[in-house]
From TrEMBL:
Transmembrane segments: none
InterPro entries per the UniProt record, alphabetical: NAD(P)-bd_dom_sf, NpdG, P5C_Rdtase_cat_N, STEAP_metalloreductase
Ion transport keyword on record: no
Stretches assigned to the Pyrroline-5-carboxylate reductase catalytic N-terminal domain: 30-123
GO BP annotation list: copper ion import; NADPH regeneration
Gene Ontology cellular component annotations, sorted alphabetically: plasma membrane
GO molecular-function term, one example from the UniProt record: NADP binding
Keywords attached to this entry: Oxidoreductase
The keyword Mitochondrion belongs to this UniProt entry's keyword annotation: no
Domain of life: Bacteria
Protein name: Oxidoreductase
Region annotation (Disordered) ranges: 1-21
Length: 240
């Protein structure tokens, strides 16, 4: 049996390392592809309320503009077509439905070059027994994104957030950890910092993109938890 720690554990636990200082991301423009859906709209709302500049994207610019207006004039959220959002953003969150994931990213390869791309798509199927994880040919949605966007800095995060809580403006804090994966430390640091702008959230580095499948798949378990307990469950990582 393999423990959660390394196979060879030290005799005594070393003193904890000081937390690494995360970058200032307050001036970055965040685009949300799929920002008219529940998850994307909720993330846009929370980041905008935290003071982030946010642009909502959709294939239909008018629909994106309507979604942005629906969040309220005081937040300054804009709406635009996906290509415009990709060009004008520093960080782009991918929150599109799984069945449109590959086509959306393939069409935006040029516009997303050089950008930090945050994939939060969960490939899931549903049947009479509930939700279950799908495994893409590339291994995960995040790995598919990396394959389709070789010139982008692809990360994975924001998978386990309740869209209901994100959109509920009466909820001041969302107490949960955000697991962040990626190949480049500077990029994952930016995503962690964005997560921590939302009250109650903490960004936790959780490995490279090859480990994204089980993070995406865990959403199926959370859906089962929520259905059984009538809840909006999240995650907390202990001892870090």
């Amino acid at each position: 049996m393999t423990s959660l720690d390394s196979a060879t554990e030290p005799a005594s636990k070393p003193a904890p390392k000081p937390a690494r200082e995360l970058p200032d991301v307050s001036q970055l423009v965040v685009g949300v592809l799929g920002g008219t859906g529940d998850q994307g709209r909720g993330l846009a709302l929370r980041l905008a309320r935290a003071g982030q500049q946010v642009i909502i994207g959709s294939r239909d610019a008018a629909r994106a503009e309507a979604a942005a207006a629906g969040l309220g004039d005081g937040l300054g959220v804009r709406g635009a077509d996906n290509a415009t959002v990709a060009r004008e953003s520093d960080v782009v969150i991918v929150a599109v439905p799984w069945d449109g994931h590959a086509a959306t990213l393939s069409a935006l390869r040029e516009e997303l070059a050089g950008k930090i791309v945050v994939d939060c798509v969960n490939p899931l199927g549903f049947d009479k027994q509930g939700a279950y994880a799908l495994k893409p040919e590339e291994g995960s949605a995040a790995q598919q994104a990396a394959a389709l966007l070789p010139d982008s800095r692809v990360t994975a995060a924001f998978h386990h957030l309740s869209a209901v809580l994100l959109q509920d403006e009466s909820v001041e804090r969302i107490d949960t950890d955000v697991m962040v994966l990626g190949e480049e430390r500077a990029a994952t640091d930016v995503v962690q910092a964005l997560a921590e702008r939302i009250p109650g959230m903490r960004g936790v580095f959780a490995g490279r993109l090859r480990n994204a499948h089980q993070v995406e798949a865990l959403v199926a378990n959370l859906i089962s938890v929520n259905r059984r307990y009538k809840a909006h469950a999240g995650l907390r990582i202990t001892d870090v």
